[in-house]
Fold these 3 entries.
Entry 1:
Amino acid sequence: MIVVTGAAGFIASCLVTRLNAANFNDIVVVDNFAVERKLVNLKGKRLRAYVDRNEFFDWLAEHHEEVEFIFHLGARTDTTEQSREVFDLLNLNYSKQMWQACCQYQLPLVYASSAATYGSGTLGYSDDDVLLPLLRPLNPYGESKNDFDNWAVTQAEKPFFWAGLKFFNVYGPNEYHKGRMASVIFHAFEQIRNTSSMTLFRSHNPDYADGEQKRDFVYVKDVVEVCYFLMHHRQHSGIYNLGTGEARTFLDLTLNTFDALGRTADIHFKDTPEDIRDTYQYFTQADMSKLRSIGYDRPFTRLEDGIQDYVQNYLVPGAYM
């Protein structure tokens, strides 16, 4: 069996689809299934069992001999949430318990970290372990992910294989439920379809013109391919960036969304909301050399191609991956 936590969410549900496509059908999905708006992400999937996240460790104690691999992708991902208690509970302490269970039962583990750990990017975007204690995330979400990364690398006892993945700006199908936290591509599609225009955040940094803020946008299909690769290549444990290695502007993103919809571009700007203005990242770009060094050689999807696929094959028809 393969365990996937956060399975009804965005990235994890796409991973389940990828596993099913490779005929892995004994999949145990773990989540808070009371959040009904996410359940459609698992519709039609071939699954072994549903396990509530609060009951998972009791379940694992009974079934660990049947488990082959754990993908721990469940987390509270709201970057505007300010309650450290919430992040300590769901992101830090739950992940510690997962790690310790994988050590106890000798299970391989891939878990979700985040590019939010890099904060303003003053130290760059290298996933070298020596930089981990020096990183200063800009919000409690990023802090919770960085706290766990730092805790993990200092543990004397580790799973026989483990990998933490620092997700950059992931976009793609199955993010319909995420609301404000959905990708800018999703919001661009909604605005363009409804108003024939798109409003972006104005730059409050003199080094960047309006719309020229840059992020490393990575298609979710590439993310799950990396997860699948790591399940089959367990020689090199560690923390890895997961982006494309190429930063693109929000104007690039928006213009390509207009193009995918066959609409004439009409772009406006508004002030960045005050609750995120001081913690806004103006530039992210993953250093992908570490993942490449362990043999991952698939090309990453160009932003133009990813947006075209996402818009035409998922957003327009309202389809799921």
Entry 2:
Amino acid sequence: MTELETPISKPRSDLGIRTLSGVIMMLVAASAIWIGGPIFAIFIALITVGLLYEWSKLALGLTPNPVARMLWILGGLAYVGFATAFIVFLREFAEIYILLGIIGLVISTDTGAYFAGRTFGGPKIAPAISPSKTWSGLLGGMTASALFISILGYCTEGFALWQPVTGAGLAIVAQAGDFFESWMKRRAGVKDSGNLIPGHGGLFDRADGLVAVLCVTALLVVTLQMTGQP
């Protein structure tokens, strides 16, 4: 997600396009999740195909070795497929606010990191991978995510200490997903994973952190179920 960077030099018109595109995407996604049924199924199918297509293009640019390329593509099938399957599971078998909450958490991380990075700047996290991301941006994202999950928890089930801790932890996961895609793009020699979304690049550029958070959350749920935790 490029919002976690600090694009100070971006022109105002580009920021407007990015904002409008982001609002439209969120409205479409929230509407599909809320409506459910065939609309939701079609939406998830399209997103999955789009993400796998962009992942495969990046994978082809990572290495000329055909065996390594195939392994990367298979890894993408597992990574993206696991995340989108978990979306379907949450929509069908959990309270809808949980799925919307995960999406909101990633948006909160993205927003908090963007504004904290622009406001405070400071040392870079990994300039060789993503030159604009700062430690202050990471802390801002963690804070925003912790606050969002705490407010959501208070409004739905009541506040508990694990909520801000989980929010901050998943913000780090979202940042890691962002860095992972940035590393893939840098190694493949491309700026964006695609050009589908004006001002944002491709679907994977927009959903890199969300995919990582969904996978980690799914693993946590499976682990808790296997250990008999509620």
Entry 3:
Amino acid sequence: MAKILIVDDEVQVASALRRLFRREGFAVEVALNGEEALEKLNTFQADLVISDFRMKGMNGAELLERVLRVSPRAVRILLSGHADLWSSSPSSAAQAVSHFISKPWDDDHLVARVRTLLGGQQSPTTSSA
């Protein structure tokens, strides 16, 4: 079963993503900021990390740069509704982002993209349906 870590400081957004991916059969953990996400990665071996860009403290690009160092095999997705992403992030942080998805997202498109990025990893209940 593929494991997804969702990082967003907006509780409603994090909850919506958690519901979406759990319904699709993924194991999901949620963190509400970058530091919490890094702590969770100590015990939760995420296959994919989805992070919001604009968060208090560490932004999503900075977080994904650190995720690359501690969990280099994890796919790293930056989720944002803002066009000015890279103006406030160093180029090394931008390079740590595997994929970018705009807010608002389409649930079906997001799930399909995640499945593609994970190479078909899914839960047994989803694959047998």
